[in-house]
Design a protein that fits this description.
By secondary structure, this protein is of the alpha/beta class. It is 56% helix and 9% strand.
């Protein structure tokens, strides 16, 4: 196996740091973390085991020098069979390694750590990221242990293009939570505000940035307003087969072909357009315009530095 890793970090980043180190050894590591008296027991237990899975990583947090010295032989035997990490949360400047190993010092500055981690992965794939994209990505990924997995999604999303932009980050995040976002909008269209707030709570607990939720609602409301304007063409109560036939025929006669078709009702998939049309019929136009204005007002307040983003968004949903 490799050298024993001696990592110097802090108590706030223990699990994230160990996870990062473990994933450098195995794609799907099984991490065993020990502290205090558990350390001695786990070292003795594993060193005497006949068979050990290759993906096991053993991490010992703040082990005493006494334990390391007394079990040095077992550790040297174990390091040939699995990855060992000694993690210290409060190492001083005059720290001395209790055993031979590769020393790694983690930055305690959260933003610096995240930026260095992102830059390292981007360099590996010959990609770059704009500052705005990094800001959005940083808000989205608060658990550093899943950072690489989410960044790989972005790299795959942009394909051969070199630069990752903020709209790419938002697109991937929205795609990941798309079902819940559609459910949120569906409950709002049914006037089920309690259910809508429960879905919002779940999205926020899953660390979906408020700016993404607001952006999705703006897009959906804009599409519903466009569908509302088409009510003269699509009569209320149309069954889907007749709606689809009318929709496709009407779409063929359009000369306008915007660059961003996703933002325009005529260029949605027929069944999606059908559901938008049905939902828009439940609202008066003024109600949709008022909701759109609330979302726009929320966007302005958020960008001007409001500390009450969630309260403002919830208020806007309840006013629907």
């Amino acid at each position: 196996m490799s050298d024993i890793i001696i990592a110097l970090g802090d108590k706030d980043n223990v699990f994230e740091d160990i996870s990062i180190l473990a994933k450098k050894v195995s794609e799907n590591p099984e991490v065993i973390i020990s502290t205090g008296k558990e350390i001695k027991n786990h070292i003795i237990e594993k060193s005497s085991a006949l068979f050990i899975e290759q993906n096991i990583v053993m991490a010992f947090v703040d082990p005493s020098d006494e334990i390391i010295h007394s079990l040095e032989h077992q550790l040297l035997v174990l390091k040939e069979r699995l990855q060992i990490i000694l993690y210290y949360t409060s190492a001083t400047k005059d720290f001395k390694k209790p055993i031979e190993g590769k020393e790694i010092t983690f930055s305690k500055d959260k933003e610096k750590r995240t930026r260095e981690h992102v830059l390292g992965i981007l360099k590996r794939y010959d990609k770059v990221m704009t500052d705005k994209a990094f800001t959005v990505f940083k808000k989205m990924i608060r658990d550093e242990s899943i950072l690489e997995m989410e960044l790989i999604k972005l790299i795959n999303f942009i394909g051969e293009r070199k630069e990752i932009r903020s709209k790419d980050v938002l697109a991937v995040v929205t795609e990941t939570h798309e079902d819940s976002l559609f459910s949120l909008f569906d409950e709002l269209s049914r006037m089920k505000k309690k259910e809508a707030l429960n879905i919002l709570e779940n999205l926020l607990q899953n660390r979906l940035p408020i700016i993404v939720i607001q952006g999705f609602l703006v897009k959906q409301t804009r599409l519903m307003l466009q569908a509302k304007d088409m009510e003269g063409i699509f009569q209320p109560g149309l069954e889907y087969p007749l709606f689809q036939k009318t929709y496709n025929k009407w779409k063929e006669g359009l000369g306008l072909k915007p660059n961003d078709k996703k933002q325009h009702f005529p260029y949605q998939k027929p069944y999606y357009a059908y559901n938008l049309s049905k939902a828009s019929q439940k609202f008066k136009r003024k109600k949709l315009v008022d909701f759109f204005d609330n979302l726009t007002d929320f966007d302005i307040k958020m960008k001007s530095g409001s500390k009450f983003e969630r309260i403002l968004l919830e208020h806007g949903l309840l006013e629907t």
